[in-house]
Amino acid sequence: MGFSGTSNYVATRELQTAVNAAVALQRPLLIKGEPGTGKTLLAFEVAKALGKQLFTWHVKSTTTAQQGLYEYDAVSRLRDSQLGDDQVNHIENYIKKGKIWEAFDTEEQSVLLIDEIDKADIEFPNDLLQELDRMEFYCYETKQTIKAKYRPIIIITSNNEKELPDAFLRRCFFHFIRFPDKETMQQIVDVHYPNLEETLLINALKTFFGIREVKNLKKKPSTSELIDWLRLLLVGKVSAEDLEDLNKMNEIPPFLGALLKNESDYDLFKALREKGVK
Amino acid sequence: MLTNFFFHLRNNNLKVNLREHLTLLEALDKEVVAFSTEDFYFLSRAIYVKHEQNLDLYDRLFGQFFEGIESINVDEFLKIDDNWLINKLLDNLSDEEKEALKAVGGLEELLERLKKTIEEQKERHEGGSKWVGTGGVSPFGNSGNNPAGVRIGGKGGNKSAVKVWDKRDFKNYDDNLELNTRNTKMALRRLRLLTREGAENELNLDVTIDRTCQNAGFLDIKMQASKQNRVKVLLLLDVGGSMDDFIEECSMLFSSAKHQFKNLEFYYFHNCVYENLWKDNGRRYEDKISTWDVLNKYNKDYKVIFIGDASMSPWELSEPRGSVEHYNAEAGTVWLERFKDKFPNLVWLNPINDGYWQYTHTIQQIRTWSDNRMFPLTINGLEKAMKCLKNSKLKFL
């Protein structure tokens, strides 16, 4: 049993190998790649393909490692003590489990997604070394060691905003999702729009890769943007001929805003088209 | 064989360690992948490579190790007839490659040099720019970077030296840059002023107990803001001229500082601070900011970091009108003194190796001005500088 993509997620052979190796050896898998190449989606699809429960932990700049484990709500316990509530005698009632604890606690193997780990503080990955390595941690309030019953499949994504520490990297498998080539891209589009007219697809892909080749773009459009754009083309009933005509007349393609998200990119592209550069 | 591969990677600057090697062996033991070279390549790459910058290097090393095994025997190569070899080679070259070939004096010339080199060379060689071997920029050998090169070994066997480049998809990501901003950030982290400001989201236990007692046991909760680093930093960067050599170090520090300090202000100057500073180098003549404004705008809580090589002609410091760029009414030292008077915590970071400081007069001068609070732009120097900024009473020799 292994991961080989799903009905709406195309995984290349290298990605499959990386995922399967990480699953078999029970190591975290670190995924990097251009934005919009399906890093976060991978965890969802792995969970779906293997039929496992998924826990997602979205990391923000203020997230601490402790929040992933548990949080102790001392204030509500104090308040409850004033009210003479019975549950005050049990400290467990005031421990809020974090995503990691939840994933450790399941009765079967689960998938844990730690999304955008680079957004957090620079020390964040170091604080999780032991937890990810041994898959256990100590809860001081209840004086118990929480150990994963079944080591979860951990998928970590990063956008490279911060360098990750070596000690952390050594414990992970690493995969860099490359921007798909034309063939893979066609497969991906087929998965999303099985009934798309072939000529429209070819023309759209041509336009898309043409835009990607424009130098000095601040943000190149990626797979998710292409998928959105194709949907707009379908909704707007743009035909293959329209696209080609516009291309020949050096007009800008319709719904360009879906592909170019940056104002200066948009202007640059428009200026290039007006000058007749393709 | 895999142990050799492991050392092959390590010897070629890919920092893999034993733990990863054992993981790979474990993976092979568990038969995670089918028995194909391609799958093995994907698997080993996921284990050994931890940064996309290293992917290209890994591709090259993998190619070298697993293809170079059946390499051509040198003696046999010398026996091959020249004309046959040249014809065979020309058939296989594209126009572009032929152009490149001309640049090194044509194919005959290249082969001549190759044979000579082989005869001169007695042992296996890797890297470097002259000998036949793997890697490197010499035109001969395997997986090198000379566009006009001849490949020896690999698939060619002893038929001929066929020019082959391994498919290297990840070439763009290898920027050869030591992107080690993490170290810098860790050093900058030492400059911390933990203060409580903003939303109250933590329980203040001591005060809560106090107040509850005073309240005759009736709970009175006191919250407080969590501690955060709110150090204020004013960064002054020297740009242009002799600083061009240190662009990389400076941008590394700058980008680290930007992430590390929430309250970071920065201005540029050239050689020495005079009456104007600027924030945007592209518009340095239009958008000038008066140095007086800067001095007045920030209070003395700000820690000031100058970054510059402090190398200039002595007059730029000591004399009015001494600046190389404009007519400055007051001398550089006057301005420097104003900064020193205003900000008790300041350091000067110098990208020049401290061993050379004694040979430049103005470095000495500025170092004296800063009360020896000049530090080299190294991790060690940064750590000292941050220590110095935290405690203005520290004396340095």
From TrEMBL, chain A:
<dbReference type="InterPro" id="IPR027417">
    <property type="entry name" value="P-loop_NTPase"/>
</dbReference>
<dbReference type="Pfam" id="PF07728">
    <property type="entry name" value="AAA_5"/>
</dbReference>
<dbReference type="InterPro" id="IPR050764">
    <property type="entry name" value="CbbQ/NirQ/NorQ/GpvN"/>
</dbReference>
<feature type="domain" description="AAA+ ATPase">
    <location>
        <begin position="25"/>
        <end position="183"/>
    </location>
</feature>
<dbReference type="InterPro" id="IPR011704">
    <property type="entry name" value="ATPase_dyneun-rel_AAA"/>
</dbReference>
<protein>
    <recommendedName>
        <fullName>AAA+ ATPase domain-containing protein</fullName>
    </recommendedName>
</protein>
<dbReference type="InterPro" id="IPR003593">
    <property type="entry name" value="AAA+_ATPase"/>
</dbReference>
Automatic annotation (TrEMBL), chain B:
<keyword id="KW-0175">Coiled coil</keyword>
<feature type="coiled-coil region">
    <location>
        <begin position="90"/>
        <end position="124"/>
    </location>
</feature>
<protein>
    <recommendedName>
        <fullName>VWA domain-containing protein</fullName>
    </recommendedName>
</protein>
